[in-house]
Amino acid sequence: MIRLAFATILLACSALGHTAGFDYKLAANEVRPGVFVVSGVNDDLTFENGGNILNTGFIVTGDGVVVIDAGPSRLYGEQLVALIGQTTDEPIVRVYITHHHPDHFFGLQAFDGVEHAALPQTINDLRLLAEGYSDNMYRLIGNAMLGTEIVLPTLAASAGTLEIGSRKLELLALSGHTESDLAIFDTTSGVLFAGDLVFHARAATTPHADIEGWQASLKTLDSLGFEVLVPGHGPVSENNAPIVETASYLDWLSGTLASAADAGLSPAEVMFIPVDARFRNLAVVTNEFQRSVVHLYQALEAALLPATETQ
Length: 311
Description:
Elements: H1 2-12, E1 29-32, E2 35-38, E3 56-60, E4 65-68, H2 74-87, E5 92-96, E6 115-118, H3 120-141, E7 155-156, E8 160-164, E9 167-174, E10 181-186, E11 191-199, H4 211-222, E12 228-233, H5 241-262, H6 267-270, H7 285-304
Parallel strand pairs: 4-5, 5-6, 6-7, 11-12
Antiparallel strand pairs: 1-2, 2-3, 3-4, 8-9, 9-10, 10-11
């Protein structure tokens, strides 16, 4: 009912300048032969970008197309399917969802008759959270979300090597950004799809973060010997600079919050701590730092409270 009412209001508000036919203007960048990245903007979710803030991708295998992440809405998914059809005659055979955050999976609705795969914990998290995510996405991206319904992955992915056509894909079951983060390494081409374990030129998001586990996962990714790195958000790279950048930002973030908690600062005071000069050029860094205070600071404060003896 919330979504229906909100959608009705949006359709009535022509001053917003959006239509149900929101055009994402998706483009496929071939980073290695047969491996394509569809890049989003480095920004927050807005009506203007329709939620297109992530990188999706697809791999042409010779026996069908493997898609990495489905995007934030039905319209995005439909336009991604059309883009793939314009790029190759091979059918789409599988879509992998890297983790449970809403900008990555709502496009699954457009992939009819295709296997939808994710790590088991990701599937469980989506069962619990997808309804709330849907309501929030309607609020955040407006008409771009119209017609979007919840479709969840049903195929449980697991770590290991998978051969499809001419490709050998290494699936890595990691964590840190969320409790369950899937990275996909096409060892045939050397392209690593890191999901939201890696951000580039954008501050990392932390609503379900375990910073220590995240740092361990970054070390795993850095050891893979990739040639092309596709972050979940931000520009593609041919070196490990985005991994170093993400690790450095997380180290500063966790150290800053821990020091603030140790000093007894209130969350309101922490919100106004200046961002380190090394990271001020990252997109949306002030917003993300303040969100991270909300996400992480209470647990740090609680850890410093003296233990209470029970009788």
